Amino acid sequence: MLFKNAYSGLSPKIWLLALVMLINRAGTMVVAFMSVYTTQKLHYSIEHAGYVMMMFGAGAIVGAWLGGKLTDLLGHYLVQLLSLGIGGLLFFVVVRLETFEYLCAGVFVLAIFGEAYRPANTVSISHFCKPENFTRSVSLVRLAINLGWAVGPVLGGFFASRNYDYLFYADGITNILAAGLVWQFLRTKVVKTPKISKEQKALNKKDSPWRDTYFLIFVGLSTIYVMSFSPLFTVLPVFYKEACNIDEQQIGLLMGLNGLLVAAVEMILIYKLEKKYTKMQFIFFGCVLLVINYFMYYYLRSFGWLLIGITFGTFSEIFALPFMNTFSLERAKGHNLGQYSAVYSMSWPIAQIISPLLGTQVIALLGYDALIITLGGIALSATIGFYFMAKK
């Protein structure tokens, strides 16, 4: 009954969005293994791997901004379709780029199309669901993401142990399949932007997320959180490989556990607890769990302990990310959902610029112990910030 209640009352379109995300994220292999691919297959240094990941983050910033703008202008359907379709084709191009400069450029363009999908998808959730079901709708789509994430890295580890090129082919095919589902089942009319008066333009400018100080503080803290969370799946695969001495298949299993746990418990936890605490309290607790994750990683590095450590990181994600999404859209008005979603979405690519570059430089200069201390300290600073936001 609890399981049934947690999933009841959601729109069929939300279930279709979740299916699109499941197929798309089942192919999420390239980003998870990019640092390993750059160092192990292409034989570049760890510093070079950091620059490649930095270029991915830079492209993602452009994609998030562009995706939010185009979503408000053209509608969420067309942006999702183009992002998935063109992005899928680009994987077949990037796999052929082995020169460092070309690889950086290819990853940059790939990230633009990939990240443009995020604000459009968030707006489509708000479009298809009832307001009272928004957090659960976000969680259902996240469940699909994490089911795909549970499968993708496991398959990625299998493919990487044989041929890294297979990672790119799988990502490309699943993106194109997801685009086909959007075209077939989620098709809507392209929005024609109506002419607006000077007074309305002034009002829209006043409502800009860039003028919302409280929201910008929230986005800043979210960026700090993501800077400490995202390395679990970008920089730390190299840590798992070289400092913890586990192979690619075990790395895939480690990251797959994250997706499996989120898929198994997030919806039920949110259904039971959502109304008992504030969103900021949930986010704060999620930050605390991430600090514990890094504390364990510093002292305990066998595969079994890494599995326990990533469990804390996973529950950090469960308590923090759905409520960050909900908070960001609750601050918006009807005419600027895409802009608010885009500004919040930028927290990820900004973090993906800073954290891989910072992480790989710390590894090169000071080693893996310093990396874990650095990431744990960043997580702690996010925890303190959200504590004061929750208290306020």
Structure, described:
By secondary structure, the chain is mostly helical. 81% of the residues lie in helices and 0% in strands. The chain is built from 17 helices and no strands. The chain has helices at residues 2-7, 12-26, 30-41, 46-74, 76-94, 100-128, 134-160, 165-185, 198-206, 213-229, 236-242, 248-273, 279-299, 303-330, 337-345, 347-366, 368-391. Helix 7 (134-160) runs antiparallel to helix 12 (248-273), helix 10 (213-229) packs antiparallel against helix 14 and helix 10 packs antiparallel against helix 17 (368-391).
Structural descriptors:
0% strand; mainly alpha; 81% helix; 392 residues; globular; 17 helices
Shape: globular
> What is the first-to-last residue Cα distance?
36 Å
Average per-residue pLDDT, rounded, comes to 82
Tally the beta strands.
Answer: 0
Largest sheet: none
Determine the fraction of residues in helical runs and give it as a percent range. over 70%
